[in-house]
Specification:
This protein is an alpha/beta fold and about 375 residues long. The protein has helices spanning about 1-15, 50-65, 75-90, 105-115, 130-135, 150-160, 180-195, 210-220, 235-240, 260-265, 275-290, 315-325, 335, 350-360, 360-370; strands spanning about 20, 25, 35-40, 65-70, 95, 115-120, 140-145, 165-170, 200-205, 225, 250-255, 270-275, 305, 310. The protein is globular, with a radius of gyration of 21 Å.
């Protein structure tokens, strides 16, 4: 039934002569589209990071007849597998998985069983040793990811070169949980090593707040703490309580509630944002796959699109990030993405979507949206 609906839509689209250009789609406002339901797996369903992603993809879904269901997963592989199985049993058409970790072959098997498509976002799937195999599965719609090693290296190096940091500690989840987190930690460690600084402690734990408190207690004279995750709810308060808020350099990924104030106070010095942008690009890949237009490279491998994070190194930068690429201000409009949706533009190609996605930056969004 799904294929029949898609075929009808394609005929309709072609008969209407729908076209699009890089500057925006000329698709009519009202086009009869098939109805899809998408499941989204996130590690949290209530923090600002998750809510911003939900708002962004729901905005796209409201324009494309797509509804969403959500499940928690990511930090617990079994929980993620259960979420995918539950989505399949519920008749979900596709999954956006924000934390593929090292269980993608299992998730692909579940999707093949239920004829359900899956796309990954935020955390790359390509580090898995079986990527070359499952990348060709018709139910793998692709991945959208960032170079976490490079971004972490940039942050730690700037702490050293710009602010003179000589001693460091790491905080975040333990190694081995997800390739994304490991790359962040390894990127920071490499920058510390390359620039002659010293790593005093690795406070890596699922209880990140206690680990951060221990670091502050044991090393009150430390210069910088590099966090591989969100740090407002974990590292911020121990630093403030110890009177070190404006003395120890700190970064934050996926900044949420309290981050703006923390940057204004000088407690947080670097904020990394952008995962809702790659989630929107991942949604486009998934939508194309669900509608029978899976985007692949010349060898039949699923799309793999690398994007760049947005790095705020000042309160002013973060104000603009919050204004232009979070919450109600989605980094992409539906009209900007229509040219890359095959049922709305028969000329949509992976190369065009990749080029557009890789042009993402705070400056490009502000230019496009009147900043």
């Amino acid at each position: 039934m799904k294929k029949k609906l898609v075929a009808i839509i394609l005929v309709l689209a072609l008969s209407l002569g729908l076209t699009a250009c890089a500057g925006g789609s000329t698709t009519p406002e009202k086009v009869e589209l098939p109805q899809y339901k998408v499941g989204v797996i996130l590690y949290n369903l209530s923090n600002d990071w998750a809510l911003n992603i939900m708002k962004s993809i729901e905005y796209l879904g409201s324009n494309l007849n797509v509804t969403f269901d959500y499940a928690v997963g990511g930090t617990d592989p079994e929980q993620t597998i259960t979420a995918a199985q539950n989505f399949g049993a519920a008749g979900i058409d596709g999954i956006i998985n924000l934390h593929p970790g090292m269980i993608m072959p299992t998730l692909i098997e579940i999707c093949e069983q239920y004829e359900m498509y899956i796309v990954t976002s935020n955390d790359p799937a390509n580090a898995h040793p079986e990527y070359g195999t499952f990348s060709k599965s018709k139910f793998f719609a692709g991945e959208v990811w960032e170079d976490d090693f490079a971004m972490a290296y940039t942050i730690a190096e700037d702490m050293i070169k710009t602010h003179g940091a000589k001693t460091f500690a790491l905080t975040g989840f333990p190694f081995g949980l997800a390739d994304q987190m490991d790359k962040r930690l390894n990127g920071a460690k490499k920058a510390i090593e390359d620039n002659g600084a010293t790593l005093l402690a690795e406070g890596l734990s699922f209880d990140k707040a206690s680990a951060a408190a221990n670091i502050v207690s044991q090393y009150p004279d430390i210069d910088a703490i590099f966090s591989s995750v969100e740090s407002i709810s974990t590292v911020y308060q121990p630093l403030v309580n110890a009177g070190l808020g404006d003395k120890v350099l700190l970064n934050c990924y996926d900044p949420g509630e309290g981050a703006l104030e923390a940057m204004e106070e000088g407690v947080v010095n670097y904020a990394v944002e952008g995962t809702l942008a790659d989630s929107m690009i991942a949604f486009v890949l998934l939508y194309n796959a669900m509608s029978g237009n899976r985007m692949t490279d010349a060898d039949g491998n699923a799309a793999s699109i690398e994007m760049e994070y947005v790095l705020a190194k000042s309160h002013e930068d973060f104000v603009n990030i919050q204004k232009y690429i979070t919450g109600d201000s989605a980094p992409f409009t539906i009209d900007e993405l229509k040219p890359f949706i095959k049922v709305l533009n028969k000329d949509a190609k992976l190369e065009g979507l990749t080029e557009f996605a890789q042009g993402f930056s705070l400056e490009s969004v502000m230019a496009r949206h009147g900043g």
